[in-house]
Amino acid sequence: MAQTFTKTMARNIFYGGTAFFFLLLIALTFDTLGTLPERDNRAALDSPVGSQIKRGKYLFETNDCIGCHTLLGEGAYFAPELGNVYVRFGNSKDAIIGFIKSRPANGIPGRRSMPQFGFSDEDLDALAEFLKYVSEINTAGWPPNIQG
Predict the structure, then answer these.
(1) Are 126 and 56 in contact (CB under 8 A)?
(2) Contacts of 11 (CB under 8 A, 6+ apart)
(3) Read out DSSP for 27-40?
(4) How many CB atoms lie within 10 A of CB 7?
(5) Are 103 and 116 in contact (CB under 8 A)?
(6) Residues 2-56 pLDDT 10s
(7) What's the pLDDT at 40?
(8) 115 has pLDDT over 80
C-alpha cells in the first residue's frame, strides 16, 4: 500500500532538518573558537621587534604591495605570494632585503617586475621583519605549495 507525502510530513522534515543543521553550525562554531587561540601569534607584536613588524605592515599597506602580490591568499595575483617568502628565501631577512634593493629603477623592459621603491635600510629591515612575522602564522597549510 502506497503512503502519500503529507503536509505534516514535509513540515516535520523541514523543522527537523533546520534544527539539525542549526545545532551543527553551533557545534562547528565552538570547535573553531577553541582552535583559533592555538594558531595565534599576536604575542610577537609585544616582543622587542613588535614595533618593526608594525612599521613593516604600514609600509606594506601604504606602498600598495597587495595591489600586485597576495598575502596569505588575499590580494592580486600579478606577483608571487608573500606569506611564505621568508621560507622561500631560505629563512633569511638579508635575502629579502637584498632582493628588494636589487630591483632596477625603471623595471625590466618587456616584462613585469617590481619597481624600486627607494626604501631606507630601516624600512627594508621593518618590511623583512613583517614578512618573517607573516611566515610564522599557522595558516593550516595555506598556500598549498611553496611557490604560493
Answers:
(1) yes
(2) none
(3) HHHHHHHHHGGGG-
(4) 7
(5) yes
(6) 678 899 999 999 999 999 999 999 999 999 888 776 666 777 788 888 899 999 9
(7) 67
(8) yes
What's the rounded Cα separation, in Å, for the pair 132 and 116?
21
Using the Cα atoms of residue 136, residue 140, residue 145 and residue 148 in order, give the sign of their dihedral: negative
Topology of domain 41-148, CATH:
Cytochrome Bc1 Complex; Chain D, domain 2 (1.10.760)
Pairwise CA distance, residues 89 & 25, whole Å = 40
Contacts of residue 64, defined as CB under 8 A and 6 or more positions apart, other chains included, come to: none
pTM, rounded to two decimals: 0.73
Neighbours of 5 (CB within 10 A): 8
Q: Which whole-number Å values give the CA distances from 6 to 2, 3, 18, 72, 95, in the listed order?
A: 12, 9, 18, 50, 70
For the record, the C-alpha cell of 144 comes out as 598549498
Nearest residue to 135 via CA among 80, 79, 71, 78 = 71
**Residue pLDDT, tens place only, 52-98:** 999 999 999 999 999 999 998 888 888 889 988 999 999 999 999 99
The domain ranges of the chain are: 1-39, 41-148
